[in-house]
């Protein structure tokens, strides 16, 4: 069963990503790529993810080109630490207007001991030195979660030196 997207984005409060449908019919992938959803809609998606609980089957979420911005990225970062995001393995926020503040929030949440995200796409955003530094700090912690195996930061305003350092820490 796929959600009626406009109903989902306009509902208040946002529904859980695990509605009353049987678990077997809940989606494992949501793709909002190319939709101009904006940060308010992304915040609703994040809230729904937070409240979905451990029975959520969502493993892939793509908001590529969806005008997520820093506020949306920060909301998603908060959701990543909740039970509803426990099975989320891939998050694509490429080309979605994420800057340093959003990148810093994502860096902190992806590398916590409870994080399950293995792939994070942040290419073609507005991430610069401060966002890169947040990833370096988070990835360089000895007790960090090692689930994150793929981090795409190409075509941002990050120096080659910082990109190489981040790459070495992800491996």
What is the chain-wise order of helices and strands? HEHEHEHEHEH
Structural class: alpha/beta
- Uncertain runs are 1-7, 17-24
Q: Terminal Cα separation, in Å?
A: 37 Å
> What is the strand arrangement across the widest sheet?
1-2-3-4-5
Shape: globular
Number of helices: 6
Question: Could you tell me the mean pLDDT?
Answer: 83
Protein described:
The longest helix is centred in the first third of the chain and has 13 residues, at 38-50. It is built from six helices and five strands, in the order αβαβαβαβαβα. Helices cover 37% and strands 9% of the residues. 43% of the residues are buried. Residues 1-7 and 17-24 have low confidence and may be disordered. Helix 2 links the parallel strand 1 and strand 2 (60-62). It has helices spanning 5-10, 38-50, 69-80, 100-110, 129-139, 160-170, and strands spanning 29-31, 60-62, 90-92, 119-121, 150-152. Strands 1-2-3-4-5 form a five-stranded parallel sheet, with no helix packed on it. Helix 2 packs parallel to helix 3 (69-80) and helix 4 (100-110) runs parallel beside helix 5 (129-139). It is α/β, with parallel strands linked by helices and 171 residues long.
Task: Kindly summarize this structure in a few lines.
With 171 residues, the protein is α/β, with parallel strands linked by helices.
């Amino acid at each position: 069963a796929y959600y009626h997207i406009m109903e989902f984005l306009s509902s208040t409060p946002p529904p859980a990503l695990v509605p009353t449908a049987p678990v077997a019919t809940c989606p494992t992938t949501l793709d909002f790529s190319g939709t101009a959803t904006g940060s308010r809609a992304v915040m609703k998606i994040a809230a729904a993810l937070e409240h979905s609980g451990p029975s959520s089957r969502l493993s892939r979420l793509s908001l590529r080109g969806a005008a997520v911005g820093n506020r949306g990225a920060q909301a998603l970062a908060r959701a990543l630490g909740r039970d509803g995001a426990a099975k989320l393995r891939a998050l694509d926020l490429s080309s979605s207007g994420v800057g340093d503040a959003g990148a810093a929030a994502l860096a902190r949440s992806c590398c916590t001991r409870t994080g399950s995200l293995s792939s994070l796409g942040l290419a073609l955003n507005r991430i610069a030195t401060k966002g890169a530094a947040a990833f370096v700090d988070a990835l360089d912690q000895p007790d960090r979660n090692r689930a994150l195996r793929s981090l795409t930061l190409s075509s941002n305003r990050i120096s080659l030196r910082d990109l190489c350092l981040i790459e070495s820490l992800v491996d």
